């Protein structure tokens, strides 16, 4: 009897031990399963884009805050419908191009960073917490921007006219979303207009191409073969007299050199920026200086001021308009059917989402302010 009781007690203790082990084992299993099922984020936070010069830049996947400090960057961001992402712009954007204050929706309310193009204050910029900063090709400033935790996207160029569409594609790659389709639409338009012009100008023999000179800000500053402005003139049907200069967009020449070239047409753009003389003043100086009176372009009243609108035509996305305008200026007979008023209205409606009136269109084409 006593042995039976002991046996029962032993069995009870054995069963209790099994239950405890099972319970503990179950708890351990639940913990292990929980750890395995805990979600681990492998989603990338950055992506790599390629600048026009082949440089790789790592940018955030989701770009919501940008600084438009490079001259043409505000225009590009606006075209890509990303003005809402701009937290700061260059101070020059605020009052440099009066038409931009009319066309752009939020420019007047956006912070302008002082001396953004010449003496950037990183601490000042950090106050606005941009993820990406579109900037000039200044290695020191670009390095400082990157070291501060922001991502710099410096201007780069291959010297090709197609950079005009490719740089917009770069901005779209960085921004993502609807910007990509907008850039594709612009690229299609760009290619169509280049073809429209070159279908005519490519058939013009060399001897029938008028000699053309491009003046950048000052009479004796011009573009070299590393600038796409040389290609622009050639595509428009001109014979670019400075195509052999080994330089970029701004090279100083002598009066004697200009007289020797004796261009049939002179185009003036990019004047009036950074404290330089206006395009009107540049031409006035040329007309009042007796040394230039013997130049064919001056004698025949073929000194042209490029339209501006929201930005200089020789630097931004309106450069495709400049190609058409220049072709018509050089060969009015061959481009008699090209209506620049119609082209300008279409461009502003399609890419700036703004309907120009007849009066506004006329003012822009005549290089007049609003």
TrEMBL record:
Matching Gene3D superfamilies, A to Z? Nitrogenase molybdenum iron protein domain
Q: Where is the signal peptide?
A: 1-26
Keyword annotations for this protein, in alphabetical order, are:
Signal
Q: Domain Fe/B12 periplasmic-binding spans what residues?
A: 65-334
Q: Does the keyword Signal apply?
A: yes
> What SUPFAM superfamilies would the database entry show?
Helical backbone' metal receptor
**What is the similarity comment for this entry?**
Belongs to the bacterial solute-binding protein 8 family.
Which PANTHER family does this UniProt record tie to the protein? MOLYBDATE-BINDING PROTEIN MOLA, VITAMIN B12-BINDING PROTEIN
Name of the protein described by the UniProt record? ABC transporter periplasmic binding protein
The record lists the organism as Gottschalkia acidurici (strain ATCC 7906 / DSM 604 / BCRC 14475 / CIP 104303 / KCTC 5404 / NCIMB 10678 / 9a)
Q: Which classification does the entry list for the species?
A: Bacteria, Bacillati, Bacillota, Tissierellia, Tissierellales
């Amino acid at each position: 009897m006593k042995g039976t009781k002991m046996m029962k007690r032993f069995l009870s203790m054995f069963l209790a031990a099994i239950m405890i082990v099972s319970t503990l084992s179950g708890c351990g299993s639940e913990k292990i399963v929980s750890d395995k099922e805990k979600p681990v984020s492998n989603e990338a936070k950055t992506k790599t884009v390629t600048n026009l010069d082949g440089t790789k830049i790592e940018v955030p996947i989701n770009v919501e805050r940008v600084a438009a400090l490079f001259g043409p960057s505000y225009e590009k961001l606006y075209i890509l419908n990303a003005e809402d992402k701009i937290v700061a712009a260059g101070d020059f954007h605020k009052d440099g191009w009066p038409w931009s204050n009319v066309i752009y929706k939020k420019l007047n309310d956006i912070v302008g960073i002082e001396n953004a193009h010449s003496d950037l204050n990183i601490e000042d910029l950090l106050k606005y917490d941009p993820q990406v900063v579109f900037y000039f090709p200044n290695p020191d400033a670009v390095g400082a921007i990157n070291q501060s935790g922001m991502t710099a996207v410096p201007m780069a160029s291959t010297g090709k006219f197609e950079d005009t569409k490719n740089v917009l594609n770069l901005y779209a790659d960085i921004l993502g979303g609807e910007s990509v389709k907008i850039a594709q639409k612009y690229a299609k338009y760009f290619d169509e207009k280049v073809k429209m012009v070159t279908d005519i100008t490519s058939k013009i023999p060399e001897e029938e191409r008028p000699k053309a000179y491009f003046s950048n800000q000052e009479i004796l500053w011009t573009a070299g073969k590393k600038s796409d402005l040389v290609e622009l003139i050639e595509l428009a049907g001109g014979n670019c007299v400075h195509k052999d200069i080994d330089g970029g967009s701004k090279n100083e020449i002598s009066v004697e050199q200009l007289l020797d070239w004796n261009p049939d047409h002179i185009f003036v753009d990019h004047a009036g920026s950074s404290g330089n003389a206006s395009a009107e003043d540049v031409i006035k100086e040329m007309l009042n200086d007796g040394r230039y009176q013997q130049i064919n372009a001056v004698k025949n009243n073929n000194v042209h001021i490029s339209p501006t609108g929201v930005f200089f035509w020789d630097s931004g996305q309106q450069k495709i308009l400049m190609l058409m305008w220049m072709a018509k200026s050089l060969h009015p007979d061959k481009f008699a059917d090209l209506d620049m008023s119609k082209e300008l209205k279409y461009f502003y409606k399609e890419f700036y989402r703004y309907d120009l009136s007849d009066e506004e269109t006329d003012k822009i084409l005549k290089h007049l302010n609003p």
